[in-house]
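ok trying this again, last paste got cut off
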Amino acid sequence: MYVSGPEPFLEVNMTRITLRCSQQRMKEKMSETVEFSMPSRTPRCSLPTVDPKLGERSSSNQPLKYLMSKFVLDAGSKSPVLGMHVVPLGSALGKTIRVGDEVAFHTPGSHHYNKRPEKEF
């Protein structure tokens, strides 16, 4: 889901988001509020550095090289941030979100890099 309006990358320091019906849907009496938790940041993988036609990694390693210089946000992580993991809260189940719905980011908080365990269980 892509959101326009707030300052760029505001979401990387938020832990909750609420979507409310657009004004048009409210006029149609389709009022719904949908809440989501944002428990962690999403790491960017290296796939964008691969030329899809050739299946080979770019010699310049872009755009990953740029992202590595600007968006490695979590201490201990070596991956730049792509976005956020978003999990619907119980009240969101069965509800619909649509283009044009209003978005409110709230509940600022911190996120932490969780290193994989050394051994798989």
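PB: full thing came through this time. The CA atoms of residues 15 and 38 lie 5 Å apart.
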